[in-house]
Design a protein that fits this description.
Length: 340
């Protein structure tokens, strides 16, 4: 008897909930059907005639842009076919932001693989009080904390080098008297060399390589031709980080021998021409703050002692002023019997 009563109560409760839900659904459908759609906006005939006639009071005044546009920020120069835009040939061109760097030293900082920030973190501290120096970090890595992928990703390295080459070309046009220095650590050294090979001759003031991951037999002809101050290579025989990565899959430029310039230096054949501007500095006891490892080159004290002096020094020597020699006029002839 009790079970039948509970069963009837549950059935009645479920039936009431179902009917309530169905009623609410029908009411919401009726509201949607009764919702009116707003009519389209009507434009007065007088305004249409004014626009067609070209009344200047009804049409907005078009913006004026310089022609030729020059180096304007992206999006500031509209499409030439826009009828609401007129070009003023007398307008002053917009200067490129890089023109403000005239007379300064621009340092392109290229970190190692694996999204490393050792060089970009240590260099500003080392250059404190060094003068008018502007640093620009080059983000070329495609992976985070995956050194092996960045080591073998030659395409990503080439894209980073292309960005540097484009910036160098714009700097040489907008700020021709600025100094440009490339600093690369590890695989960043390979990016620096690739960027120099894409640049024009004598367009870079100096290239500094800190433990580069390229082969010791890497051809430096293109990079040396682009650098007025040459190349400074810092290597260490105790760089076991390069030894481990190179012995596994070869150097970053694809040399299967595993001999890197960051560990053994560049090997130059005897009688090779054009390598007078290559300077190689090996690790030794005189580097008191460097333990010989791969990360030792990015320590602020090591950078301040060995790298910063190369950045602030003038790559092209200033020619001396011409020497003026004053020749005295000749003495008059001495007459006979006259005393001197």
């Amino acid at each position: 008897m009790r079970r039948g009563w509970w069963l009837a109560a549950a059935t009645a409760f479920l039936l009431g909930a179902f009917l309530t839900n169905a009623l609410a659904q029908d009411q919401s459908d009726d509201k949607k059907k009764k919702k009116k759609i707003p009519p389209p906006m009507k434009v007065e005939e007088s305004k249409k005639e004014d626009v067609m006639k070209g009344d200047p009071k009804k049409i907005e005044e078009p913006k004026t842009f310089p022609f030729p546009p020059g180096f304007a920020p992206p999006g500031s120069i509209p499409f030439k076919g826009d009828p609401n835009v007129k070009f003023d040939p007398k307008a002053k061109p917009i200067p490129h932001p890089y023109s403000r760097l005239e007379g300064m030293t621009i340092v392109f900082v290229i970190n190692d693989a694996g999204s490393s920030t050792d060089l970009s973190d240590g260099l500003p501290e080392a250059m404190e009080g060094a003068g008018r120096i502007v640093t620009k970090n080059v983000n070329w890595t495609q992976t985070a904390f995956e050194t092996r992928k960045d080591w073998r990703d030659v395409q990503a390295q080439g894209r980073g080098a292309g960005k540097i080459a484009m910036d160098v070309a714009i700097l040489r046009k907008e700020a021709p008297h600025c100094r440009i220095v490339l600093i690369g650590h590890g695989v960043g050294g390979h990016v620096a060399l690739m960027a120099a090979e894409m640049c024009a001759a004598k367009s870079i003031d100096r290239i500094i390589l800190l433990g580069p991951s390229v082969s010791s037999r890497y051809c430096l002809d293109g990079a040396l031709a682009a650098s007025r101050g040459g190349i400074d290579n810092f290597h260490s025989s105790l760089d076991f980080t390069l030894d481990r990565w190179a012995s596994d899959g070869g150097t970053s430029d694809g040399d299967p021998s595993g001999s890197t310039a960051g560990q053994y230096g560049f090997r130059i054949q005897r009688g090779a021409k054009g390598y007078e501007n290559l300077r190689q500095v090996g690790w030794g006891d005189r580097m008191t703050h460097h333990n010989g490892g791969h990360g030792g080159w990015t320590r602020p004290r090591v950078l301040a002692e060995w790298v910063v002096p190369l950045i602030i020094c003038d790559a092209p020597p200033v020619p001396p002023a011409p020497r003026i020699i004053v020749v005295p006029p000749p003495l008059p002839p001495v007459k006979d019997g006259a005393t001197k």
